[in-house]
Amino acid sequence: MSSDRLAPLDLAFWHLESAGHPMHLGALAFFSPGEGAPATPATGPELLELIAGRAAAIPRLRARVRDVLLPVGGAAWAPDPDFDVRHHVRHVPLAGTDFTARAVALAGHLMERPLERSRPLWETHLLTQGGDGPADGSFAVLAKFHHALADGMRATALGAGLLDGTAPAGPRPRTDPPAPPDPLTAPLRLAGRARDHAAALGRAALVGTAVLRAGRLGPPAHRALTAAPSGTRRIATAVLDLEDVRRVRKAAGGTANDILLTVVAGALRRWARERGEPLPAAGDPRALVPVSRHRPGDPPGSGNSLSGYLLELPTGEDDPGARLAAVRRTMDRNRAAGPLRGAGAVALLADRIPPLAHRYGTPFAGAAARLLFDVLVTTVPLPRGTLSLGGHPLTALHPLAPLARGQSLAVAMTPYDGQVYAGLVADGEAVPDLDRLAWSLGEELVELLDRTLA
């Protein structure tokens, strides 16, 4: 694979990272026996060899980041001459009876550790029960990908390459050579490029102005969301019934994502009350809701292509139906304006910043995230159909988002096989009761459904 430069947003995520703020995302996947599973469960070493072989066959997973002379401050992907897949794939046997709880706890500790920046920016951990794996064949896989390597959509495509029969498709080959440019149309092409560049600069100026206007002057009501960072990570998981989400949508309107955002708002409200925190009359926590800008046919290693919306989560509203109405109003306005406008589109500013400015300015700019939003809430889709690894069906997949500097909580959700699997990542000291917040998600969906159908 030839060297290729990091896109501006990839470069931004590369420079945002620090020892206490690792910029990787991930997923904790559970696999169990089921229909189609092999009669003899695979052992830990067999599964490890399977994962290693598939990972080594993905070109992007064999590339590392290296500095380049030009442009000054830039970086590029290049094949790692010392690539050894054994540095990236590890087997961790877990003792004890509650395998799921132990796997989730260990995943929290593993998410604390930054990836080795001198090597390809990913790793997987195969978690099994005891020695070579449980007698029934159940196991889990924690996958970590640096945000410079991929956003949620691209990480899903890369991770799919480890599964049975879902290797990501590469770039489509060109069948006919491109026609030579017509010299008579060269001035028109140049004028078109100038207009496109001017329009991009105009959008960047509008986004920059919106970011400045959207900066929070005071802290949100929920103190835990902006506690001083400790560098620790804690993970919790939740499972929601996708059919319940659909029933609420059918009765009350909105999108499935609107309902999930409302559930997160209600869970934060319930959690704050149990902690004895005052409910906000104003200053509701502000969520950044990422929006993918990838197009069908993009290669799996095409990097980050993101924008986002900002949403005040109505935790001060007592009625679940009113919370949903408030979320719908804001998200409808966001979608009508589109993902290229508003302060939530701050990621677009990366395209207008020269590489050298990314290297020296991005770490300082990252500190401003606290002024813009308080919690990340994202939904990541999976490929359709039943997924498996070594013939073992995927039974649960909890996505894990990184924490921006100054943030204490990120919530990621993935619909799959009739359920919505949530992964919550938090600063371990700021949110020691993360399990309770995760549990509140399910309680809130039930209450929202009951109130909607009443």
Automatic annotation (TrEMBL):
InterPro entries the record matches: Acyl_transf_WS/DGAT, O-acyltransferase_WSD1-like, O-acyltransferase_WSD1_C, O-acyltransferase_WSD1_N
Catalytic reaction(s) noted: an acyl-CoA + a 1,2-diacyl-sn-glycerol = a triacyl-sn-glycerol + CoA
Keyword presence, Phosphoprotein: no
Keywords: Acyltransferase, Glycerol metabolism, Lipid biosynthesis, Lipid metabolism, Transferase
UniProt-listed Enzyme Commission number(s): 2.3.1.20
Matching Pfam families: WS_DGAT_C, WS_DGAT_cat
O-acyltransferase WSD1-like N-terminal domain segment(s): 6-259
Keyword Transmembrane helix attributed: no
UniProt record similarity statement: Belongs to the long-chain O-acyltransferase family.
The protein's name in its UniProt record: Diacylglycerol O-acyltransferase
Organism annotation: Streptomyces yaizuensis
